[in-house]
Structures are given as structure tokens and as C-alpha cells.
Amino acid sequence: MDTKRFISFEGLDYSGKTTQIKRLKEYLEGEGFKVYTIREPGGTKISEKIRRILLDKAHVNMTGRCEIFLYSAARVQLVEEQIIPLLKKGYFILADRYVDSTTAYQGYGRGVDLEMVRLINEAATYGIMPGTTFYLKFLPEQVNKRTKLSGRELDRLEAAGLDFYQRVFQGYEKIAENNKNRFVVIDANQGIEQIHQKIVEVVKKRTLEEL
Ligand code: TMP
Questions:
Q1: Domain coordinates in residue numbering, the chain
Q2: Structural fold of domain 6-210
Q3: Whose alpha carbon is nearest atom 3 of ligand 1?
Q4: Which contacts qualify for 79-83: CB closer than 8 Å, 24 or more apart?
């Protein structure tokens, strides 16, 4: 399956993924393309229900392995219900998180065995991977700062603290290193417009010129 039009966004919470996805969607639609955005976990009725279980603060004792199966259950439903059919129809898919989040959060962050993570990710996606992954790089200390500034209540995962985010950050660094062809690393401290321009430049080169 041609996955050039499948683009995922990764990074710690508050790295600005959602804003950039919105901007890229507007750009691509302006160019006449059909675009579908997905947010993980979620994106289908079943997956949104699983999302609520995952983010529920009452579930403090949820184990890393339970997490990985729930995220992956939400994902496989999304892959079958939305991603495969839409790619076949020629849509662009902009994903707010995908399997790299599982490797970073459940693998590196929660300590689930990385080989097990790899196998589960493979099973949950049928091996369908994005053509490009934008990694908005952002230090763990900044997550805490932006979380406090937002003034809203933390969900279960955000409440996990700085140590956890340090491990997730290190995980993303390793994943980026191991997937140089797919990963495009962008400093998330730049202005929204600057980041958007950089993303458009890469999408033009890696996707639009190849279509
Ligand atoms: P969001 O706030 O970006 O929508 O993501 C929800 C949370 O879920 C975020 O803290 C990252 C976490 N997450 C995982 O731990 N593993 C995963 O596989 C995915 C997709 C998200």
C-alpha cells in the first residue's frame, strides 16, 4: 500500500502537534487534496471509548501491559475502519500520534519489553507505517511548564511526572535515530509559523513532488 500520503506527528504532550496538524490540513486542502486527521488514541466510536478508559485518572493502577493492549486495540480498529480505506481512496492522513507513541510511552516510559512492543505494534498496524513522521522535539521540563501554564487538571498520563517524561524523551531520541529515513526532527521551540513553513517544505519535497 502506498503510504506517502500518511503523515504522523509525534512528540511529548504540549509539543504543538495538534496546532501543526491543523495548519498542514488547511494548507493541503488549499492545494486541492482530500485530508483526514486522526487523533490517537481515538478516531472511531470504539477507539474513543477505549481512550476514555486510558485517560481516566481513577485507573491509577493500570499496568504498562494493560496500557499497551488498550492503545493497540484502539489503533487496530482505526487502521481497519479508517486508515486503510482512506489511503485506498487517495486521502492524506494526518495522524496525531501512532505506533511511535507506544514505543516511546509504553516501551521506554513504562518499561514494557521493547521486542514485545515491536510485535504488538506490527500486529496492530498490519505493518502500515507513515511515509513521514514529524517529531516535534521538546524537553520534558517544558512539558511541566506548559501543563502548569494551561491551568487545567492533568489526565492520568500527564500526572505521571518528570521522570516518566525524561524516559519518554530518551525513547523518542532513540526511535528518531533508528528511523532516520522516516523521521523529520523539528525543534518545537520555534514559532508556530516557522514550524509550519518547515513542515510544508518537507511535505512538498517528500510527498507532493512524488505523487
Ligand atoms: P494526546 O494528549 O496527545 O491526545 O495523547 C494522549 C496521551 O496518550 C498522551 O499522554 C500520550 C499517550 N499515548 C501513549 O502513552 N501511548 C500511545 O500509544 C498513544 C497513541 C498515546
A1: 6-210
A2: Rossmann fold (3.40.50)
A3: 13
A4: 79/124, 79/125, 79/126, 79/128, 81/44, 82/36, 82/38, 82/43, 82/44, 83/6, 83/38, 83/128
Neighbours of 88 (CB within 10 A): 10
pLDDT one-digit tens code per residue, 49-69: 999 999 999 999 999 999 999
Is residue 168 within 8 A of residue 108, CB to CB? The reply is yes
Q: Where are the beta strands (DSSP E) in the chain?
A: 6-10, 35-39, 92-96, 132-137, 183-187
Distance, CA 32 to ligand 1 centroid (Å)?
Answer: 31
Nearest CA to ligand 1 atom 16: 102
For residue 155, give the nearest of 86, 23, 60, 72 by alpha carbon.
60
- pLDDT (tens digit, 9 = 90+) per residue, 83-138? 999 999 999 999 999 999 999 999 999 999 999 999 999 999 999 999 999 999 99
